[in-house]
Amino acid sequence: MRLKKLISQCRKQDREAQEKLYREYADKLFVLCLKYAGNYEEAKDILQDGFIKIFQNIAQFRGKGTFEGWMTRIMINTALKKYQNRSVFLSIEEEWVEEPEIEDDEELLSLNVLIDLVQELPERYRLVFNLYSLDGYSHKEIAEMLNITEGTSKSNLARARIKLKEKIEDHRTKNLKPVYVEK
Amino acid sequence: MSKSKKIGELYRERFEDARLEPPKECWDAISAALPPEKGQKRRVVPLWISLGGVAAALAFIFLLNFDRTNSVPSEPFVVSPETEKPAEIDKLQEETILRETEKNLPQEKMSGVVVSEKVEENEFSSQTPNSLETIITVSKLRQGSVMLKEATISSSQGGLWKTFPHEKNMPESIFEAKEALLLAFSEEKKEKEPEPEKVSRFSISPKAGAIYADQMGSNGNSPGGSGLTMTYGMNLEYRISDKIRLRTGYGKLDLQYRSQELNYDSAVDYGFVGRTGNLPRWEQASLEQEMAYVEIPVEMEFQIIEGKLGLNLIGGMSSFWLQENSMSLEGSGGSYEEGKAGNLRGLSFSTNLGVGLSYDLFRGMEWNLEPMFKYQWNTYTHDTNLRPYILGVYSGIRFQF
């Protein structure tokens, strides 16, 4: 009920309501921006552009699905728009590679570390990995969104996983604590 | 005890319900970019500042167009390997690519890297209107080494689609090398992307109006009001911004004044020139005066209410070019005199103020109704306390093109 009222006030360009809505969702959406962006500054840009679009188009939200889902889609579209035109997607006929596994170490692989590592991926890998693995889009949907083929989407996902695994292992090697063995 | 997980699963778990506070300046930037709150007072910009701004904007647009016209490339688009070679290619020459590939490829073909780009919609080359071939040759590769024989890049429906032959057999470093090359070319591709569709800023409005002309003040013998007469013309408009339009045009204005029971004395100079007729010295006469002007307005429209039914505030000025000037006096006994008013200037001006109602009929077409007040000045050749004005209601259809 409170959200409905807030949306209604935002439609009237009520600045106080807009700020409340922003405070409510910015933290969560910023994580989304960070994982799609190449760095912190780009994530800030996506967040700002995305929220401006949200407030400009809030009248078009008809209540189909959740409001958070609607905002998430706008934010993802904003990120894709930013990188889509400058990303090169390679079409590679690769044999299917099984998704690699890694040792989960919560202390070593914190949220910030995982964000840093995914941001280091080339844009084309990062976009496909986020869309497929984290935001649940199918290869067919990704192909339409990025104007590529499903095969390209699959091959870029496979390479993204391999690259991420390499980066995680590299990070682990660099940050492993020395082990002392008592004699 | 750490557990083995798939990469996607690990990321999903960490990102689920994760929150990180964005920096404070984000909200400030968003807030500044949003339209002002409803009910917030808008600043009223003085007319002279607005007109100055319009003049500057028009000059800027003119200069931009002029510059664009002069900067059309006349030479076909060619990338020189020595001068335009991207940093990535330099890297290719020196690093792992060469080592990896020396052993795999025939010696006689090891002359360099050749990349051909075929672009269907070529905007740059006048010599090859349907295709553009850009060749980059890396000539400094060490003898006996090559890693890519050929890569063909083609564009399709706005997306970039790239294929490489024999991909599976290529070592990892070659794969990386191709990525670097493609990235270099994608920068070029970006520059060739079509511009977004331009929204037309010009419109024309044929219009007609009913006007009433009169003058404030009196000199005893001044004629009465004109009665209702018609005007017609055409406006050309340029939309400077979403809220502001600048317009000029052409209008034909016919004015008729008639005064009854005028005490006429032919010995007095009424500014009546070119007399012909037989009116006696003292006479009760009626005066009829006809004037025709061509009006050239320069006005600005400020949009106050936007929507299907819109409201605009209109301000500006008009120049009036005298085209016809005739007067006649008719006495009670059938006597008359004809001539023209000698105190009218050939060029006079008015300050205009009005409101415009608009109604969207179709896309790019709207109906207008504009009640206007025009206060005339510089009308008479000599000082007088007469201040002519025009009240008019104009209507027309605006076509955007």
UniProtKB/TrEMBL annotation, chain A:
InterPro entries: RNA_pol_sigma-70-like, RNA_pol_sigma-70_dom, RNA_pol_sigma70_r2, RNA_pol_sigma70_r4_t2, RNA_pol_sigma_r2, RNA_pol_sigma_r3/r4-like, WH-like_DNA-bd_sf. Keywords: Sigma factor, Transcription, Transcription regulation. Residues 113-164 form the RNA polymerase sigma factor 70 region 4 type domain. Residues 21-86 form the RNA polymerase sigma-70 region domain. The keyword Transcription applies. One of its GO terms (molecular function) is DNA binding. GO terms for biological process: DNA-templated transcription initiation. Belongs to the sigma-70 factor family. ECF subfamily. This is RNA polymerase sigma-70 factor, ECF subfamily. It comes from Salinimicrobium catena.
From TrEMBL, chain B:
This is Outer membrane protein beta-barrel domain-containing protein. The chain crosses the membrane at residues 44-64. Keywords: Membrane, Transmembrane, Transmembrane helix. It comes from Salinimicrobium catena.
